[in-house]
Amino acid sequence: MKTRVVALFVLLFVLGLVAYAGQYAGQTAKATTLKGWVSDSECAAHGDKKCSNKQHVANGSKLVIVTDGDNKIWTVSNPSTVADHQGHYIQVKGTTDPEKSSITVQEVKMLKEGS
Fold first, then answer.
1. How does strand 89-97 pair with strand 30-40?
2. Residue 83 lies in a domain
3. Minimal CA–CA distance to 98: which of 80, 68, 72, 70?
4. Where does 2-112 have alpha helices with state H?
5. Contact 58, 40 (CB under 8 A)
6. CATH label of the domain that carries residue 36
7. Radius of gyration (Cα) for the chain, nearest Å?
8. Is residue 92 in a domain?
9. Counted domains in the chain
10. Residue 78 reports pLDDT greater than 70
11. Does 3 score more than 90 pLDDT?
12. Residues 106, 95: contact at Cβ < 8 Å?
């Protein structure tokens, strides 16, 4: 009986550790600051990082941020935060998910190009 109780507690402890580790294993997002241009996914895929044609978004393209320097394309998961800045050079603070190449924007700041 005593070994069964000990085995039960060990089992519950191990299951608790597995559940705790599983909860945090999928969290790959991290807070970061990016500088770049707000564009749409269609134009960015063709190398136009300064596209301000809002018709593309109306037709289904997603708003993206094309970063300064490496021209990495980040899909904006909350596009209303940057919709008024399409075609502009900005700095954003937000939470990135590198696996999905997406960013949830928390703060937007307009910049002069090259700053």
1. antiparallel
2. yes
3. 72
4. 2-25, 41-45, 54-58
5. no
6. 2.40.50
7. 21
8. yes
9. 1
10. yes
11. no
12. yes
* Domain span at 80: 30-110
Contact 46, 64 (CB under 8 A): no
Per-residue pLDDT, 13? 75
Whether the Cβ atoms of residue 57 and residue 40 lie closer than 8 Å to each other:
yes
The identity of residue 108, as a single letter, is: V
Tokens encoding 2 = 């005593």
Beta strand spans in 1-115 (E): 30-40, 63-67, 73-76, 89-97, 102-110
CA-to-CA distance for 105 and 78, rounded, in angstroms?
7
Q: What pTM does this model have?
A: 0.72
Quickly count: other Cβ atoms within 10 Å of residue 37's Cβ.
25
Tell me, yes or no, whether 37 lies in a domain: yes
Residue 1, domain member (yes or no): no
